[in-house]
Amino acid sequence: MLHGIDAVDWASIPGHPHWYEPDRAARGLHDLAKAANPVQAAEAGSRLGGGGIVHGHSAAVFPAAAVAAPLLLDIAQQGHAAARDTALGLLDEALSCCPHAGYTRVVAADGTAVPVCRAIAHHLRARTEFLVGLGRRGKSLLADAAAHWRFEIRECVAHGSDTAAFGILAGRLPDGAHAAEMHLAGTITVLSELTLAYPPEEGSREACLRVIARDPGELPPGALLFPAECGDRVH
Question: H or E stretch including 47?
Fold first, then answer.
């Protein structure tokens, strides 16, 4: 865990200059990973929550939280019980807080700039088995992450003047019409309206979306869809 924390150049991660303190992120994670009792875990959590990955007093989250998310999950899995509780609390806070204007996104592996909340939700879903095993608290985190859904297009067919998009849904897309961002090859296209036509059956993630007033050729296989409201969240 310590190697992964030390491998990050926390000062190079952008953040509001009056609120984000990279040293708090690095030291807080380091101390949390080594915490051996509730007092040490609380002190480390205070550093992380006071300008490291979030600023609790102003309810703001920094891009560093997305980088810290898998490290916090490692700590939750491998660290002291008090460190686990602190790490989960910080993840919950980071997911619920809004970022400052100009610092709302992080760069994904494909070069696309994704909202901070979406990146955190992705890391939480990647540890579904572990979080479910924690019981109510882990399941609550996953339920919060589900609102930051992700849909991968596999195939599209025309449906009148709209398009039926078949693919894989991660998270939960509520009923009703929603705007979405389509990410493909580092570019972002806004889709003004889509609905969930067929939800996944139990035990499956396959679903169908109806994308309003879009041609199948505009929705290529491999494109990823995310809720547009994630990109609109600003402190």
Answer: helix 38-49
Residues 6+ apart with CB under 8 A from 103: 14, 15, 16, 20, 62, 63
Q: For residues 68 and 79, is the Cβ–Cβ distance under 8 A?
A: no
> Can you tell me whether residue 224 is helix, strand or coil?
strand
Q: Which two tokens stand for residue 18?
A: 């009056």
Q: Tens digit of pLDDT for each residue in 149-165?
A: 999 999 999 999 999 99
Q: Which residue has the tokens 């109510």?
A: 136
Q: DSSP letter string over 93-120?
A: HHHHSEEPTT--EEE-TTS-EEEHHHHH
How do residues 207-227 score in pLDDT, each as one tens digit? 999 999 999 999 999 999 999
Q: Specify the 3-state DSSP secondary structure of 36.
A: coil
Question: What distance in Å separates the CA atoms of residue 26 and residue 5, rounded to the nearest whole number?
Answer: 7
User: For the segment 82-92, what is each residue's pLDDT rounded down to a tens digit?
Assistant: 999 999 999 99
